[in-house]
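Progress against Task 2.4 (sequence-to-structure conversion) is shown through the following example record, which the project officer requested during the mid-term review.
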Amino acid sequence: MAVAETTITTKRSVFQSSAAQKLLAFAALIVIFLVFSFLSPYFATPENIVGILLATAVNGVLALGATFIIITAGIDLSVGTVMTLSAVMTGLAVSIYHLPVPVGIMIGILTGTTAGLINGVVIARMRIPPFIATLGMMMIARGLALVLSTIETGTVKPIYFNNTPGFRLITMSSVLDPLLKPIAPNFSIPNAVFILFLAALVAAFILGKTVLGRYTVAIGSNEEATRLSGVNVANWKTAVYALGGVFSGLAGVMIASRLNSAQPALGVGYELDAIAAVVIGGTSLSGGEGTILGTIIGAFIISTLTNGLRIMNVPQEWQFVVTGVIVILAVYLDILRRRRS
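Structure tokens generated for the chain above:
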């Protein structure tokens, strides 16, 4: 009862600031889109818009899991390499051992879930700080991905799905093609985009309508008060990190399908984009506040900005600079909102 009251009070106190942050993020997305549309005639084309949607899919799914973790005032630096490990495990199952595609998908997702579960146990039970624990998992997952990719040839090489042509269709085909082709023959929305939005709906339901979601917010708002209310914080925090692993595993399957291969050297840097999307979307690094809608908006801001800068031929190093500045501004705005609250 006390946890429920604490959660409700916290939600009421941050509702206005949270809504303002989401509105600001959405307005920023519109402004970025309009600016690049004005600067380049190639930006607002249907093909490029689909490219932005596709680029958002994987990072958006990763950011969904990171949202839950950051709401608890935690952090997960391993989401990118866990995604890669999940992709490699899917490749081994489907391409090397010729297991059915659904089984390979489940193995990939279970790989991510297991990594997240280990993170949760190390953080909640062993009391190791999330930064250190997930940094260690980042290195472990990266190493395992490289080791496992040598099984077939003895050297580190991508695992291709050439013998399973239907695997790529999971994300790159479109369930709406029969409806869109007569109207717009050259326009197709890949399934990866629908997977992102379906995952977002599931995440929003979990965060807003389940006990796990309520305890996620309560732990981030005041972990000690939640513990004193009789809640087993260690178990629920472990569950949150395991849920984050589920989304990392799903992202691994998606990127393997999109590339039609499992790239063992891929993944480093994805965690930064995922965290940036969460922060830009209004989730507080101090915990206790965040929304799935805000995270999706943040993911679109990152991919739209990156796409626009590439079209404008801005060097990649300056793209990193711009993204970093935006993240710092987002965190600073969060600090100002909390001071006013």
